[in-house]
Amino acid sequence: MFRITPIKNGICCIDGIYAGGVKAGFKKDDYDVGFIRSDTSLDIAYLFTTNKFQAAPIKYVKLKNIKNTNFILANSKNANALTGIEGIKDIEDILEFLSTKIDVIDPIMSSTGVIGVRLNKDKIKKAIEKFDFNERSSNKFARAIMTTDSFEKEIAFEVEGEFGKFKIGGVAKGAGMINPAMATMLCFITTDANIPQNEMQDILREINEITFNAISVDGDTSTNDSVFLMTTREGDYNKEAFKEALKKVMQKLALDIVRDGEGATKAVAFVVSGAKNKNEAKMAAKALTNSLLVKTALFGEDPNWGRIASTIGASGVECDEEKLKISFENVIVYNRGKILFDEEIEKKAHEIMKRREFKIYVDLGIGDGKFTAYGCDLSYDYVKINAEYRT
Amino acid sequence: MFRITPIKNGICCIDGIYAGGVKAGFKKDDYDVGFIRSDTSLDIAYLFTTNKFQAAPIKYVKLKNIKNTNFILANSKNANALTGIEGIKDIEDILEFLSTKIDVIDPIMSSTGVIGVRLNKDKIKKAIEKFDFNERSSNKFARAIMTTDSFEKEIAFEVEGEFGKFKIGGVAKGAGMINPAMATMLCFITTDANIPQNEMQDILREINEITFNAISVDGDTSTNDSVFLMTTREGDYNKEAFKEALKKVMQKLALDIVRDGEGATKAVAFVVSGAKNKNEAKMAAKALTNSLLVKTALFGEDPNWGRIASTIGASGVECDEEKLKISFENVIVYNRGKILFDEEIEKKAHEIMKRREFKIYVDLGIGDGKFTAYGCDLSYDYVKINAEYRT
């Protein structure tokens, strides 16, 4: 038995964890370089993108095999990806400079933004000089890592039970190039839970699979996707309670990313059941989040269920039109070979689609595989944002 | 040695082949039901969609195992897909009615349009009554099968060599739900070449792989994709010449579909080389045609090569940033670990992207696998067309 209560201050809900952001001039007039630091060295677990061209900050962490750190430096507007050895050297140079300003233990860098451009080291060093290392603003950090995001993504909980108590907080950024194949663009989670080191990575991977790996904005998997879980170990621990709290944190942040998808006006859960197995349920659900025809129908609030069926049929999963069932919330439009779609049903389904958030249920009627994926619509603004990104 | 000369009249370039279209009222005021027929029974080869929910017209042809026919009835605005047994019965009923109007041998139906709605049999029967069976208008037929297409897709050639001569003509429709996993939406090719029956299917499949299977408008594979190859066998035959002519027909029609992709302003060839093998080259090239971020960059005429690299990295193919090379036509932007992209190169690449058609070269530098895929940009109009499709 345990109780999960929302609290304030995001990643700074943990004692001894500091965070902040400054305006380094990468953005016109907003925070663009930030930090997370800790009084003590933190145990850390992480998941990185499956994109073969992993960005320099990811290569750096893997190269150094970092398991503990007390400092994360993050920047937006430049991904430091496809920058080769030079990109890694830039990180070394920047972190070397950082170490002249504050005591650091195996510091980490994390970047997001345009791919294929060298970092402006001078600007980042000037940002470091402006840091208030005693600041405890999760919000400024959350803003510093935003690119085309329209709002900050933060959350924190306190968890109490017979085992004692711990806290957990997280920040993330998303918006575009979102089809995480391991984690989303950037996500940082802090906790004081006393998790055994050997459980951290497994738990993170398990919860990631049903949260960040279940969302898609545009089907594009970035070079920089990273999720970090850090703990001070000052609190208590209970595995069940921790997994539940971590899931709540990651689900909230993942859904915020979908809600804030580039140009998105709706966040839709595609609940697939009855698949041959879990993997096929995931294939079908992810295919629905990535189909342009489904996404544009969502934008048009058009209950064109034929596009949903066609996408399932093209997704490669085992399916049969005599077994398939499709509903918009509780409105069944197609039931195992029977087209129920008439004017009245269409009107009801259309009303549901006007909501900012709703569920589409697809039952394949074959096995017991289940998966829920979260996607958004495709609007004029997605095209606008991405056609004009660099100009 | 042989010579391929463009000729007129599309599929009606072949003696004894008739085609036409009438206005049945499915469209506001345009041709929407058409036919192709022949004086004699035609040998026929076909390829159908890999979508698991194949439409009723496809199921019908497979069920009857049709190898020869003298009549194809086609309609737009309704795909007769996800309509179950009833959808097949509707075809039987319609073709039964057709047989009271003209002598038919194993007639075929072919449909395109909205999924999940029963055919209006009465309208189609009325259309049949209006057919002028002696009409020889490839163009009217091409218009009758158009949905969101903005122009007719037709082509014909005469091929002459020491072996004698034959003719070949084709029509197709495309526009949306175009990521053919076997053939595009609808394509009909007529010839009088005396091809051995056992070679027809193999040649069609081989040429299809590098033409229709190499294009994508939106990554959505429809329930109705079909390509038909029909011959009267009245002409001569030479395998090499026939393959070359068939390739020219199918390539022209496939490219026309990309050029006329919903909302498309550009047709781009993604020429991938140096892949581990042909399959990986195809995976990479197709991934580029389907990436929303690449497609919106094309629309914005933004030479954001980082998105191309990122898409390659996420496509699942073997790759290495030290071996990768990316060019817009002859302008190299990234060369095996070196970022060549500066203001001058950017300007040159931007100029190339202003063209209506151009090539993007990606050399993976690993093996000798090559594949060229054809795609288009993603514009506001794609969203508009598909958000408003049924309303």
From TrEMBL, chains A, B:
GO molecular function annotation: L-glutamate N-acetyltransferase activity, acting on acetyl-L-ornithine as donor
Subcellular compartments: Cytoplasm
Keyword NAD annotated: no
Annotated site residues (Involved in the stabilization of negative charge on the oxyanion by the formation of the oxyanion hole) in this chain: 112-113
InterPro entries the record matches: Arg_biosynth_ArgJ (IPR002813), ArgJ-like_dom_sf (IPR016117), ArgJ_beta_C (IPR042195)
UniProt site positions, description: Cleavage: 183-184
Active site: 184 (nucleophile)
Binding site for substrate: 147, 173, 184, 262, 386, 391
Keywords of this entry: Acyltransferase, Amino-acid biosynthesis, Arginine biosynthesis, Autocatalytic cleavage, Cytoplasm, Multifunctional enzyme, Transferase
Catalysis performed (reactions): N(2)-acetyl-L-ornithine + L-glutamate = N-acetyl-L-glutamate + L-ornithine; L-glutamate + acetyl-CoA = N-acetyl-L-glutamate + CoA + H(+)
SUPFAM superfamilies assigned: DmpA/ArgJ-like (SSF56266)
UniProt main location, coarse: cytoplasm
Pathway(s) served: Amino-acid biosynthesis; L-arginine biosynthesis; N(2)-acetyl-L-ornithine from L-glutamate: step 1/4; Amino-acid biosynthesis; L-arginine biosynthesis; L-ornithine and N-acetyl-L-glutamate from L-glutamate and N(2)-acetyl-L-ornithine (cyclic): step 1/1
Enzyme Commission number(s): 2.3.1.35, 2.3.1.1
Pfam families associated with the record: ArgJ (PF01960)
Family, similarity comment: Belongs to the ArgJ family.
NCBIfam families, sorted: ArgJ, PRK05388.1
UniProt cross-references to HAMAP family, sorted A to Z: ArgJ
Subunit structure: Heterotetramer of two alpha and two beta chains.
Purpose of the protein: Catalyzes two activities which are involved in the cyclic version of arginine biosynthesis: the synthesis of N-acetylglutamate from glutamate and acetyl-CoA as the acetyl donor, and of ornithine by transacetylation between N(2)-acetylornithine and glutamate.
Protein name: Arginine biosynthesis bifunctional protein ArgJ
Gene from which the chain derives: argJ
